[in-house]
Amino acid sequence: MATHRLFIRAIGFLPDTTGNVYPKPGALDGYDRFSNEILAFKDSGTRIGAVTTFLVPKNYVGTPKGYVVWSSIATTGDVVWDVDTKAVADGESLDPSTDDDAQTVTTTTPGTARLRKDSTVTFSGTYAADDEVLVSVYRDGVQAADTLAAEALFEGFIFEFADA
Amino acid sequence: MVLTAIQLAAIRQDFVATLTIINKTKPQINVALQAIEDWFEANRVSLGTAIEAAVPGQFTGAQKLKLVKFWLRSKFDRE
Predict the structure, then answer these.
(1) Chain A contact for B13 (CB, 8 A cutoff)
(2) What is the per-residue DSSP string for A15-74?
(3) B23 close contact with A: CB closer than 8 A
(4) Are B26 and A43 an interchain contact pair (Cβ–Cβ within 8 Å)?
(5) Mean pLDDT in order along chain A per 10 residues (164 residues)
(6) Is the CA virtual torsion A156, A53, A15, A12 positive or negative?
(7) Which domain does B30 fall in, by range?
């Protein structure tokens, strides 16, 4: 059994309609040499998010995890991330009313600005090869535990799984 | 008056935009902002009284507020 990872770049996510999640070049925040496009999750005091989809690989067997990859120019504070998913097979609704997973993780930003941070969630839902997985990543600024007084700069999302 | 989460967020964003190193948390900034709000509320009547004493009967309450607003902008641009 081996562990595999699927990386979805932030640019593959569609921000919600609040205007508090937006794409920006990293250079605006001092990421000078490799200024890729990121999604900024504002310190809005509200729950804000972005969505995407991916296909579960053919060799998927189990042990699913998700990683929110992000950074910040702040040197103190925590971010509350919510990750909601729904696996959709052929013939099932792409407008589901329930989630397979609704996981939350609170992560402290590194003490140095612009360091990569991965926030990990363990999924408990059922996924199968060729399922289209709907994914929402939220910053839950309503929570008192979300103390980062800056944008959380979302790089992308990792789906991790084990094969046979 | 207790500042709402949305009001706090709006002021926080303006403040943080002026920082090169963001080494303050949301709760720290929020407490400072509420302290400013509380101090102003505790002293706003005496501020109005001071203006009134200097120029009796010339300015409405709304005009006094605007005087304070523009004075504050000028004051802290000078410092």
Answers:
(1) yes
(2) E-TTSSEEEEEGGGGT--SS--EEEEE---SSEEEEEEEEEPPTT--EEEEEEEEEE-SB
(3) yes
(4) yes
(5) 95 96 88 87 96 97 96 96 97 95 97 96 96 98 96 97 92
(6) positive
(7) 5-78
Given an 8 Å threshold on Cβ–Cβ distance, is A147 in contact with B26?
yes
What pLDDT score does B37 carry?
Answer: 95
ipTM: 0.79
Tell me which DSSP letter residue A76 carries.
S
CA distance B63 to chain A (A): 32
Decide: A161 and B28 in contact? Cβ < 8 Å: no
Number of domains in chain B: 1
| Sequence-ordered list of residues with C-beta below 8 angstroms from that of A142, at least 6 positions apart, any chain | A45, A46, A47, B5
* pLDDT of amino acid A82: 98
* CA dist A121 → A107, A152, A164, B42, B77 (Å): 11, 17, 22, 47, 47
The single-letter code of the amino acid at A79 is V
Q: Is the pLDDT of residue B79 over 80?
A: no
- Torsion, CA A78, CA B12, CA B21, CA A114, rounded to 10: 40
Q: Please, what is the average pLDDT of chain B?
A: 93
pTM of the model: 0.89
Dist. CA B22–CA B15, nearest whole Å: 10
| Cβ–Cβ contact B42 with A under 8 A | no
